[in-house]
Amino acid sequence: MALQKEIKVIAFDADDTLWDCQSWFDEVERRCCQLLSPWATAREVSEGLFATEHRNLPLTGYGTKAFTLSLIENAVRVTNGQLSGQDVMQLIDMGKELLRFPTTPLPEVRETLELLSQTRRYRLVVFTKGELMDQEDKLRRSGLEEYFSYMETVSNKTETEYRQLCENLSVAPEQTLMVGNSFRSDIVPALNCGAWAIHIPYHVVWALEKSDEYPHDRLFNIEHFGEILQYV
């Protein structure tokens, strides 16, 4: 099914849709588990980190700085306050590394965006959640900036944010196509507000982004980024 007549805006998630992100966070978590191995097992550290992140979300939201704060808080708790200043600095350095990792476009991303741009049929935008400066910098480092006329970073992706995005772009939800890897954040709220969606799963998923999946008349599932062209 082609959507050329209906769609005016194609919105793309950023992390783990345009470039790899979660695997870098997973690597930092692994190194943190190694650092804290004298006090707890890797499973205990990871479960504690997940609980800490979940508890902190209403206060700190999503993003690298929020993750780093939870990383340190969990480490202090796991070690019963025995964490040294040097260990804290190691965790801070790990967090800073997450602000600089290479955002190399995933396979078929650049080529697909180039072809979509050449059609001049759609407005291509980035719609992501997290910290504004971090997300803007990742897009710049990716070298994909030229393909997008607009970027919006929000603290969370709910139906409200999707409706606001459409209002900001002066399009109806049914004229909008959302492309992303997270069924919970990229697909469900987009469908709920009346938009179309393309789900492209990534091989790693943050625990807080996992959710049940289901079919929908306005949803398409693909395995490779280039398959987007089959629908638009």
UniProtKB/TrEMBL annotation:
Protein name, UniProt field: Putative haloacid dehalogenase-like family hydrolase
Hydrolase as UniProt keyword: yes
Molecular-function GO terms, alphabetical: hydrolase activity
Record's keyword annotation contains Hydrolase: yes
Keywords recorded for this protein, A-Z: Hydrolase
Gene3D superfamilies tied to this protein: HAD superfamily/HAD-like (3.40.50.1000), Putative phosphatase, domain 2 (1.10.150.240)
